């Protein structure tokens, strides 16, 4: 999502770093895209930049919460928290507490690094402890590492196209080798964009770090923890990534992701068409990518959809009973 309040913030603070060109977005453009492509629900996230301003984060979260109240079966949201530094930890923890107590988000967005540190760094321990305490879904989105030089010479190769996949892999490995992913078992961590390059090189990392005596984790331990993640297929619904994801995680830990509204619509439609063919080739198990996995990840959403379905069925029965002139007796018997 690209809330208007964030665009206003950018205009009022032109000196803040921002290298993205934002497409036009509104709740209605999302709803239109969903309707055209048979998408029943979208989980909205603010995944453009780490924000230092905790008040701005809270405003974005309240905006997303109100949007979900307006469209309870159409939208969910991941909460946005302030940039994580040693100094900001009290604000970050307060933000998580506020969201859990007041807004009931479907999860929280974290970026792959803050202040040059990947998410397995000890600085993040208090954050992981709190997120584990509330059994949070954590959506990790790649961002450029502030301490890594952007050295791509060709202007066509913007960082999101190349660097972000490696940033995702680095932070995933950081979580594994720091024992973060094994220490906090209540977390459900989603590595966006097909997990970066982890599906391709996880076996090599597991074996080579152990063989070189760099890691005390056996290859089996590494692979077990690597397969504990979830992933989405945003920008990745093509034969290469999907094939690796199938072998790495399987449908039960994979969800569809559109990355809307950043790719042009024809690209997203092409990805959806490929995914449909791939999913249905794998039968009922493959179909989990499109619905079942997400409903298991987001119990609030599942309950909301189930409630809406019950209400719809009751309404149909009432209308049928009324048309037959049977009134309340027929309805109570049918129910």
Automatic annotation (TrEMBL):
Pfam families: Amidohydro_2. It catalyses: 6-methylsalicylate + H(+) = 3-methylphenol + CO2. Gene3D superfamilies: Metal-dependent hydrolases. SUPFAM superfamilies: Metallo-dependent hydrolases. One of its GO terms (molecular function) is hydrolase activity. One of its GO terms (biological process) is secondary metabolic process. GO terms for cellular component: cytosol. PANTHER family: 2-AMINO-3-CARBOXYLMUCONATE-6-SEMIALDEHYDE DECARBOXYLASE, AMIDOHYDROLASE-RELATED DOMAIN-CONTAINING PROTEIN. Belongs to the metallo-dependent hydrolases superfamily. ACMSD family. This is 6-methylsalicylate decarboxylase. It comes from Botryotinia fuckeliana (strain BcDW1) (Noble rot fungus).
């Amino acid at each position: 999502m690209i809330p208007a309040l964030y665009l206003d913030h950018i205009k009022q603070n032109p000196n803040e770093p921002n290298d993205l060109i934002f497409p036009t977005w509104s709740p209605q453009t999302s709803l239109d895209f969903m309707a055209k492509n048979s998408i029943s629900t979208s989980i909205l996230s603010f995944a453009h930049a780490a924000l230092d301003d905790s008040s701005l984060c809270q405003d974005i979260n309240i905006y997303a919460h109100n949007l979900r109240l307006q469209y309870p079966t159409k939208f969910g949201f991941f909460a946005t928290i302030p940039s994580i530094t040693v100094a900001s930890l009290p604000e970050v923890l307060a933000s998580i507490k506020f969201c859990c107590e007041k807004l009931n988000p479907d999860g929280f967005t974290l970026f792959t690094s803050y202040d040059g540190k990947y998410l397995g760094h000890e600085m993040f321990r208090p954050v992981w402890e709190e997120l584990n305490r509330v059994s949070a879904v954590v959506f990790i989105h790649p961002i450029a590492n502030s301490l890594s030089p952007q050295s791509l010479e060709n202007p066509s190769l913007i960082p999101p196209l190349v660097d972000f996949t490696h940033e995702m892999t680095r932070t995933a490995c950081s979580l594994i080798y720091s024992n973060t992913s094994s220490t906090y078992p209540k977390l459900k961590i989603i590595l966006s964009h097909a997990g970066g390059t982890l599906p391709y090189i996880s076996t090599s990392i597991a074996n080579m770090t152990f063989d070189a005596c760099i890691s005390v984790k056996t290859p089996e331990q590494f692979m077990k923890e690597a397969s504990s993640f979830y992933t989405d297929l945003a920008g990745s619904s093509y034969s290469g990534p999907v094939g690796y994801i199938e072998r790495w995680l399987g449908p039960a830990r994979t969800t569809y992701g559109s990355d809307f509204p950043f790719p042009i619509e024809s690209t997203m439609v092409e990805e959806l068409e490929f995914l449909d063919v791939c999913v249905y080739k794998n039968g009922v198990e493959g179909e989990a990518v499109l619905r079942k996995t997400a409903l298991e990840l987001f119990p609030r959403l599942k309950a909301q959809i189930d409630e809406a379905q019950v209400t719809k069925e009751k309404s149909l029965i009432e209308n049928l009973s009324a048309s037959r002139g049977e009134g309340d007796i027929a309805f109570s018997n049918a129910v």
